[in-house]
Amino acid sequence: MRVISDSGELRAVLTGWRGRKKTLGFVPTMGCLHEGHLSLIRAAKKENTAVIASIFVNPLQFGPREDFKRYPRNLERDKRFLKKEGTDFLFLPGVGEFYPKDFQTSVSVVYLSKGLCGKTRPTHFSGVCTVVLKLLNLVMPDRLYLGQKDYQQYRVLGQMMEDLGFPCQTRLCPIVREEDGLAMSSRNVLLSANERKEARLLHQALGLVQGLVISGVKSVIQIKKAGKEILAQSSLGRLDYLEVVNARTLSPVVKLKRGDEILAAVAFFFKKTRLIDNVLIKVT
Ligand code: AMP
Fold first, then answer.
1. Which partner from 8, 132, 183, 192 sits 20 to 30 angstroms from 17, CA to CA?
2. SS3 helix, strand, coil % of the chain, rounded to 5?
3. Exposed (0-12), middle (13-18) or buried (19+): which is 149, by Cβ within 10 Å?
4. Is the pLDDT of residue 21 over 90?
5. Long-range contacts made by residues 65-70, C-beta under 8 angstroms, separation at least 24?
6. What are the tens digits of pLDDT across the range 237-283?
């Protein structure tokens, strides 16, 4: 695995590497890797000649009172994991090089960034778009691998690439979970033992929501109420949102119709640690 931290060097190395019929799969991450991230590496490995991962805790996507400083980091372990999966390149930009003092550009996808996580984190998605567009311009991958856990991010980035004509396919990879159903997340290590126990309620609430939709309940108010009742069993956490939205537009749905593709999504706080999860459902 070739580890590169300078943008110019990355460009030169990849220019030398590129050739006819070679394809490059790209997995951007913020590190502290777990099986969820590694599933993206494996998916990329399967359908490309080479795989590049990046690790960069992007300050632009954290709000002023969010957990940028506390965000878990574990670079040596990450390198071992990536090597073991056969990752070909690892890009580790430094904050100073990536965002020099006079950096002033911001990329925004206006409507898809407003709801769900955008309500609590109003600057988050422009931070994500700005860093990912910069990374894409450097890496020029053929395919970009994203996890369903951050489904809104997947939609926002897909829209950005479509709007700006970025020539890259996007692959959405399923959520990898712990045994009790909790979606794997780098932030899970920040939970206390009791918070960790309660965190399984997110998956339980979404399971109930999914069950109600499958059993034919059409009222979203009723479905959300049932999901929220499960989350109300938590004594240590607090609900940010539980929403049911159209899976493409991310706009709220009131009454379900046969054929609708919907996303039920949840965000939940344990003190400053914010967990998210979701399920995609086709209404029958
Ligand atoms: P992050 O390091 O949290 O920015 O995540 C990097 C990528 O890994 C994003 O595309 C995430 O959606 C994806 N990812 C994070 N957690 C999981 C998970 N549990 N299952 C699948 N993909 C995940």
1. 132
2. 40, 20, 35
3. buried
4. no
5. 66/121, 66/272, 67/187, 67/190, 67/272, 67/273, 70/190, 70/272
6. 999 999 999 999 999 999 999 999 999 999 999 999 999 999 999 99
CA nearest ligand 1 atom 11, residue: 147
* Ligand 1 atom index nearest CA of 175: 20
H-helix segments, 99-148: 117-120, 124-139
- Mean local confidence (pLDDT), 170-178: 98
Question: How many angstroms separate the most distant Cα atoms in the chain?
Answer: 57
Q: Is 38 in the pocket of ligand 1 (CB under 6 A)?
A: no
3-state secondary structure at position 261: strand
Catalytic residue among 34, 37, 124, 203: 37
Which two tokens mark 111?
A: 């409507």
* Position 20 pLDDT exceeds 90: no
Token pair recorded at residue 81: 């994991």
Atom of ligand 1 nearest to the CA of 149: 12
CA distance 230 to 32: 30
Which atom number of ligand 1 is nearest to the Cα of residue 176? 20
Q: Which two tokens stand for residue 57?
A: 């805790």
| Average pLDDT for 44-59 | 98
Q: Report the run of H or E that residue 2 belongs to, with start and end.
A: strand 2-4
Pocket test for ligand 1, best of 91, 149, 153, 170 (most atoms within 8 A of CB): 149
146 lines ligand 1 (CB under 6 A): yes
Distance CA 119, CA 263 (A): 17
CA distance 166 to 140: 9
Which residue lies with its CA nearest to atom 14 of ligand 1?
A: 147
Active site (annotated) includes residue 37: yes
Q: Please state, in angstroms and rounded to a whole number, the distance separating the CA atoms of residues 107 and 143.
A: 21
